[in-house]
Amino acid sequence: MNPVKVGICGLGTVGGGTFNVLQRNAQEIARRAGREIEVAQIAARSINPLCQTGSTLITDDVFEVVNNPDIDIVVELIGGYTLARDLVLKAIENGKHVVTANKALIAVHGNEIFTKAEEKGVIVAFEASVAGGIPVIKTIREGLSGNRINWVAGIINGTGNFILTEMREKGRAFADVLKEAQALGYAEADPTFDIEGIDAAHKLTILASIAFGIPLQFEKAYTEGITKLTSEDVLYADALGYRIKHLGVAKRTPQGIELRVHPTLIPAERLLANVNGVMNAVMVNGDAVGSTLYYGAGAGMEATASAVVADIVDVVRVMTSDPENRVPHLAFQPSSLSDVAVLPIDQCETAYYLRIQAEDSPGVLAQVATILSEREINIESIMQKELEHMDGKIPMILLTHKVSEAKMNDAITALEALEGVEGKVVRIRVEQLN
Amino acid sequence: MNPVKVGICGLGTVGGGTFNVLQRNAQEIARRAGREIEVAQIAARSINPLCQTGSTLITDDVFEVVNNPDIDIVVELIGGYTLARDLVLKAIENGKHVVTANKALIAVHGNEIFTKAEEKGVIVAFEASVAGGIPVIKTIREGLSGNRINWVAGIINGTGNFILTEMREKGRAFADVLKEAQALGYAEADPTFDIEGIDAAHKLTILASIAFGIPLQFEKAYTEGITKLTSEDVLYADALGYRIKHLGVAKRTPQGIELRVHPTLIPAERLLANVNGVMNAVMVNGDAVGSTLYYGAGAGMEATASAVVADIVDVVRVMTSDPENRVPHLAFQPSSLSDVAVLPIDQCETAYYLRIQAEDSPGVLAQVATILSEREINIESIMQKELEHMDGKIPMILLTHKVSEAKMNDAITALEALEGVEGKVVRIRVEQLN
Predict the structure, then answer these.
(1) Do residues B280 and B372 share a domain?
(2) Partner residue facing A325 (CB), from B135, B287, B321
(3) Is the same domain home to A84 and A43?
(4) Is the CB of B55 inside 8 Å of chain A's CB atoms?
(5) Contact B25 A288 (CB under 8 A)
(6) Whole-angstrom distance, CA of residue B327 vs CA of residue A314
(7) A346 contacts A388 by C-beta, under 8 angstroms
C-alpha cells in the first residue's frame, strides 16, 4: 500500500518532536499501523535546528499544506485560536483528516470544528491537547466506555504543579518559584494561562465533555489560579495530612455538572497528591471501574509528540472505515449529547480549608463556630497554631464538611465582619478523591 | 440499526458484573457506541443471584451460545485453559467475534487463537485479561503506538499486593496474611497461581508481546513467588528507602527481552511503590513519552466487567470494517512480529539486595567484599543491624549495582561457603524504575 501522507503545520517544540518521532520510529510505527507514514510537507517559519528535515518539502505558508492534494492528514501544531481555526476548518473543507495538540482551539471552537468534520466525514483527533503523552482521552472515550463516569480530577498543568511542588518541598514563595520556572523554560514569559488556570480550564473542558457527553463549554468553567497561595497555607495543609494541588475537577451531580479549576487540598496518601514537579496525572472515577489514575509527562517535545503520533496511527486505521462506526469526537454520538447544565460555582459543593487571622481569645472561636453553625456548615477539625503569635493574633485553621459555595461565601462575609478577625479569610477547597 | 447481539458464557463474578453493567448503563453505552448492545443468550451452570436475568435466554451448554446464529459477539468468561480454548476456537470457526478476560488462555494459547481469528477475519479482544479495569492493553497498543517501548513493570496481581501491603504496614508474617486474604475472598482456596507469580506471569507475557511485538512466550517467563519473603526483609527494605513489590518486568535489552516476575525492591518515592492493597498499577516507559503509569482496581466484579464492556464496544465499532485496518491483536501486524529472543534469567541484569547472616567480625566483611569484587559486582551500600545480635551473628545487608544473574548466583554460592556466613543468603532484585 502507498504510504499515508502527513503535512505538519508548525515545527516548534511539538512539531519538531512529532517530526523526529515519526522519522526515528518509522519502522516500529509501520509495523503497528500496517502502513508507512510519510511526512510529505512541513509548514514552518523557520527550520527547527533539532530536526533533520533533509529533502522534505518545506513552505512558510500553512495553507499550502492544507491545499496540497497529496496530503491525507494535516497536523496542526501552530497553536493559538485564530489562524489555527482557519487552518483546521479549511483542512476539513478540503476533506482532510486533522490531528491537533491545540487545547485552546478545541475548548473554544471544538463544537464548530466537530460539526464541520462530521458533515465532511473526516476525523479531528486531539489526544495531545490534554495531559501531553498520557492517552487519557482515548482512555475515557474508549477504555472506560462501559462506565457512567462520576468525576474526573487532574493535575493538568505542569508549570503550576512545578511551582506548588517547589513551594512545599523548599518552603519557597510563589513569585520566587515562578521566576525560576520561567528561567527553566517551564513557564512562558507571560505565564497567565498557566498560573491563572486558563490552560487547565481548556483541558478540563475537553475532559468533561468526553466524560459526560456534553458540548464543550469553556465559558462556563470556573477558573481560579495559584497566584494567591502562600507557603504558609501549603505548610498548614501538610500538617493536616493534605497536599495542595492545582486541580481541574469535573463532577456529575444530581443538579448538573461541576466544572472548576482551583487550588485544592487532597489527602496526602492519595497517589495524586504525590504527583510532583512538572508531571501530570488524571483520576477518572467510573461507576463500574471505580477510581483509576493515569500519570506521565504533561508537556515536552517528544511526550506530546507521542500523543500526536498515536492519533496519526489511529486516523490511518480508521480513515477508510464508515464514519458512522468511528469513535465519536466527544465520545458520545453527536445526536445524543446531553444538555445537562454546567453549574455556576455558587452551586458547587466542596469541603473547605479556612484560615482565619483571629484574636487569641475563646470568644472568637465561639463566634466563628456560631456563624458556621447558623449556615449549617459542619466543622471537621480546628487547628490553632499558638507558635505563630503575631500582635496577639493567631491563625485559626478549620476544615469543614461539604457545603455549597454560596453558603460558604455568606459565612466568610460574616466571619470577616467579626471584630476579632483581621483581614481576609483564606479559603481553599478540599476534595477527598476516594 | 439492529442491536448487536452478545452471548455471555459464564455468569460468575466477571460474567455477572458484565451482565449488570450492560443492563444498568445500556443507555450510556448506546450513546457512545451508536448501537444498542443486547445480551441475547447466557450460558451458566447456575444463575448468579446478583443478576436479574429476566427473560434472557439461558442455557447450561456454552456451545449453544457459540452455535447460536443470532449472536455476533461471544464473551468467554468461564476461565481455565481447556474448555475455554475449545469454546473460543469454535466461536472463531463460526465467524463470531470474541471478548475474553482469560489471561491463562491468551498467554498459553493466544498465538494459535489469533492466527485462527486472522484467518476468519474476526476479532479476539482481551483487555480484561490484564489489570482488570485499567485499559492498559489499549494504552500500549494504541495510546503509545508512536513509541519504541523500553520497558513495562507492573503490580498485576492484587492478592500478592494485598499480602505485601499487610506485611509491611502491620509487620505481619506471610502465612498469617495469606489466611486472611483467603477469608476475605481475595485469594483462592488454592492460592498457588497468585502467590507463586503464575497469574502475574500470564499477564506479563501478554504485556511483553504487545509492547515489543513478539509472539506470546509464557513458557519462557521467569517466575518467582512471594512465599519466601520475610517481614524482616520488608522492614530492612523500608529502612533503605525502598518498598518490596511483586513485580512483573519486561525489558528490552540489546541482547534480547527480559521477562520476569519476582519480588522487587523499588524506591519508596515512586508512585508504583505507593500502590497498596489489592490495587494494580502498570508503568510503561517509551522512548518518546518517557515513564507513564496506569492505576486502578485489578480485579473485582464490575472493575473487570468495565474492561469486558469496553472491548464489546470496540468490537461493535470495528466489526464492519476491513480487517486489515484493525488494531492487530498483538499490537504489531502478524507478519511483522519480531523473533528477538526472550532471555533466560541467567542473562538478566538487575541490582540486588542481599541479606547475609554473618559473624560480627571485620574479617567477614572483607571476605564478602572480596568475593563480590572478584566477580566485578559493585557494592552500593552496606547496612549492619547491630541491634539484632543473635548468637554472635548479625544480618549484613548489601545493595549492589547491576550485574547478571549468572554472576550473582556464582557469588552467592561462594558467599554461602564462607565459614563466617550462616545458612542461605537472601537475594531480592532491585529496580530503580526511573
Answers:
(1) no
(2) B321
(3) yes
(4) no
(5) yes
(6) 9
(7) no
Contact yes or no for B303/B132 (Cβ under 8 A): yes
pLDDT single digits (tens) A371-380: 999 999 999 9
Residue type, B30: A
CA–CA separation, A262 and A225 (whole Å): 6
- Give the separation between CA A106 and CA A85, rounded to whole angstroms: 9
Contact A144/B at CB under 8 A: yes
SS3 B60: coil
A48 domain residue, yes or no = yes
User: Are residues A66 and A7 in contact, defined by beta-carbon separation less than 8 angstroms?
Assistant: yes
State how far the Cα of B118 lies from the Cα of B233, in Å rounded to an integer. Answer: 48
Higher pLDDT, residue A300 or B94:
B94
What would the DSSP string read from start to end of A69-98?
A: TT-SEEEE-S-SSHHHHHHHHHHHHTT-EE
Q: Do residues A429 and A264 touch, judged by C-beta distance below 8 A? A: yes
Q: What does pLDDT average to over chain B?
A: 95
| Domain span at B142 | 136-297
Nearest CA in chain B to A19: B146
pLDDT at A387: 54
- Tens-digit pLDDT profile for residues B222-232: 999 999 999 99
Number of helices (H) and strands (E) in chain A: give both, helices first. 14, 17
Optimal mutation site among B123, B287, B292, interface A, most CBs of chain A within 10 A: B292
Please tell me if residue A169 touches chain B, with a CB cutoff of 8 Å. Answer: no
Of B266, B329, B356, residue with least CA distance to B114: B329
Instruction: Report which of A137, A141, A150, A153 is spatially closest to residue A289, judged by C-alpha positions.
Output: A150
Euclidean distance between CA atoms B132 and A282, whole angstroms? 18
Judge whether residue A385 has pLDDT over 80.
no
CATH number at residue B277: 3.30.360.10
Report the C-alpha gap between B366 and B379 in whole angstroms: 12
My answer on whether A146 and A275 are in the same domain is yes
Reduced to 3 states (helix: H, G, I; strand: E, B; else coil), residue A255 is: coil
pLDDT band at A1 (very low <50, low <70, confident <90, very high): confident
Q: Which residues pair with A247 in a beta bridge?
A: A262
Question: A391: domain CATH number?
Answer: 3.30.70.260
> How far is it, in rounded angstroms, from Cα B403 to Cα B407?
7
Chain B partners of A295 at a C-beta cutoff of 8 Å?
271, 292-295
Q: What is the pLDDT of residues A136-170, one digit of tens each?
A: 999 999 999 999 999 999 999 999 999 999 999 99
CB < 8 Å from B in window 74-93 of A: none
| AA letter at A230 | T
Residue type, B162: F
Q: Pull the grid cell for residue A206.
A: 475537553
Is B342 a member of any domain?
no
What amino acid positions of B are annotated as catalytic residues?
203
- Is the distance from CB of B96 to CB of B66 less than 8 angstroms? yes
* pLDDT per position as a tens digit, A21-54: 999 999 999 999 999 999 999 999 999 999 999 9
Nearest C-alpha in B relative to A214: B31
Nearest to A25 among B147, B303, B327 (CB): B147
The per-residue pLDDT of chain A, averaged, comes to: 95
Which of A141-145, A321-325, A418-422 has the lowest average pLDDT? Answer: A321-325
Q: Out of B33, B139, B325, whose CB is closest to A321?
A: B325
Calpha distance A281→A274 (Å, rounded): 10
The answer to whether residue A342 sits within a structural domain is no
User: Which of the four pLDDT bands, split at 50, 70 and 90, describes residue B391?
Assistant: low
* Closest-CA residue of chain A to B210: A32
Residues B402 and B380 in one domain: yes
